[in-house]
Fold:
Amino acid sequence: MKVEIVPSQQYVLVKVHGLLDEACKAEFDEQIHPLIDTGTKKLLVDLSGSDRVTSAGIGHLVTLVSRANAKGGSVVFVNPSAFIKLVFHTTKLTKFFDVEETMEAGIQRLLEG
Amino acid sequence: MERLKLPATLPSLAAFRDFVSQAAFAAGVGPQLLLKIEIVLEELLVNHVMHAYGSGEGDSEVVCFRKEPAMFCVQVIDHGPPFDPLQRPTPDLELAPESRPVGGLGIYLVKSMSSEVTYERDADRNVLTACFAVTPETELKSQAD
Structure:
């Protein structure tokens, strides 16, 4: 997985590319979690570059959301593929994750939250 | 019955995905069911590649076949030590994600998206078979429909 981080005034955009699986732990630990740890409160995660997620990848996303929530922050996922949407739905994560179809809707949700 | 045997490595996954997608398409599987098959295959293959042979090397074999009445089945086969992943307990999905026990989510996905899934130890092989019902709602519609 590759990660691209685009800071802006009101939130940080994280674009992820490639399969979200067990092997992504280093990218989460070294690039994404430090954003939360250094005070970022609003994280927009663009999934348009990742068409697939495994159960291990789901674990990384859960850790990210939990970590952000514990520090008073929020995470919104945008542009999920049909594959990822079905996995979120089947594992009942749609009750816990904030997910929007488009970048615009995600930004609105993040800034209103 | 169609089969593909490749080294159990991550670079083999794309070839296995293409192989199963083509077999499913030929069997009349529609896009929504194909999505479920892809999710099941992803979980089975990734788990298989990461764990079937420990730190050693070996092959993965994927077999696609049709079973009456109207089922499309995918088998994932390895020659590793006996291991039945279906015995893993189902996670409680009503719990908040951070409170759920680690593990078990992948096999939950496999079980919930397949019409039936079985494990068999056949001589020195682990054979996991996931079958999917091809119904009028899940079959590929022709252009004329």
Notes: The longest helix of chain A spans residues 55-70.
